[in-house]
Each structure stands twice: as structure tokens, then as C-alpha cells.
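Please review this one:
***
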Amino acid sequence: MLFDEEKACAQEWQRKGKWIGLWRIAGMHGNYSLFDVDSHEELNEILWSLPLFDRIDFEVVALCRHRSALNGDILSGVVREGAQV
């Protein structure tokens, strides 16, 4: 089933440490995801690899740490290579 393939693909990117956050939007069919990539091209590769790519509407927002943030590394350790997902 296509949804099983999508889940497996997403979990593989999580295990590789590239898809570091995945949250369901309560009451909606959708999610917020956080990626740790080295380039726009790498993010494009990940998104295009998803089996449901052509059925998903994406909004991509680039984030960077704010210089006033006390804990600039709050996301470290969210998911690391080899982590169980």
C-alpha cells in the first residue's frame, strides 16, 4: 500500500538523521516536519523520494537559530543516525 511505502521512506530519512521532527496537526490530515539538510538540493531529493510526493502540497520555510535564543541547540538529539523510530 502506498501509505506503508510513505511511512517506510519517512522513517528511513529519520534514521539517517535528515528528517529530525515530525508532528501531526491535530484534527487535520497533515503534519509539520523539520529537516536538517546541507542544501536546498538535498531537501528537494528527500521530498521527491516520498511515494506520495505528487499528492502533497508543501510549504517550505527555511529556519535558522535566533541570536537571542538562550538554547541554540534545543533540537540536538531529537533523532540521530541509528535511532529507533
The helical segments are 2-15, 40-49. The longest helix spans residues 2-15. Residues 78-85 have pLDDT under 50 and may be disordered.
